[in-house]
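FIELD: query
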Amino acid sequence: MKKAPVNKIIPFSNVDGPGNRTAVFFQGCTFNCLFCHNPETIRLCADCGACVPGCPAGALRVNGLGRVVWDSARCVQCDACIKACPHDASPRVTWMTVEEVMGMIRRTAPYIGGVTASGGECTLRCEFLIDLFTEVKKLGKTCLIDSNGSFDFEADPRILSVCDGVMLDVKAVEPAWNDTLISYPRDLVLRNLDYLIKTGKLAEARTVIFPDRDRENEETVRYTARRIQNSCPYKIIRYRPYGVRERYRKLLGETETGADYAERFARLAREEGAARAYVV
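FIELD: result
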């Protein structure tokens, strides 16, 4: 029976796709973005036990097999374990079957338009997602993927047959800036951008705008806007340091991107043909 590591399920979300949606966040990611605001989803727990002593509720322990065990009933969601973790992971992960995830989704089904799979990087669990989305479709709901673009959608298009669209991050186009930000080659992301546009499966493109990075911001926005045109919304996201790991905040800055500065790049995107570009 397939199981996948689920970090959390948000029953009602209006920021993970259009309308009211249930968002399922899977653990594990292929990227290590410097500006990641939920770095505790990057890796699986290494069972080092560093988080156990600092848990104020006694919700964590190391069992006889040397594994960190989380008691969700005792957990007060204080995030002390996440702050103590040296591995960009979380002990608060549940390995769930498709039916267990569907049990959560069915509770909110009458009040949502669909389900969004996020992470981490949810496409690491492609086989699980195919089965999950197949079941979600039986409820008459839409299915969206929030992806960093590291999965080759053209090489394995099965997931797109049960998915209504992909919300794709285009983080950086200039190679050196891309390598600095995410430590992962940009080529597959850009191929995915073109393929999703061609197949009509690009639901949304997103780019984070960083303070005082005029050239890098402009190159990414101009490239992306010229390709997507009016095929989907283009979300211009203001960099915010909240949740970003301290060692990287020193590189990227301690202040958030100004609204006027971000709007400058939204205007650029619209001038390049991405008529639905907007700032968040």
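FIELD: remark
The mean pLDDT is 97.
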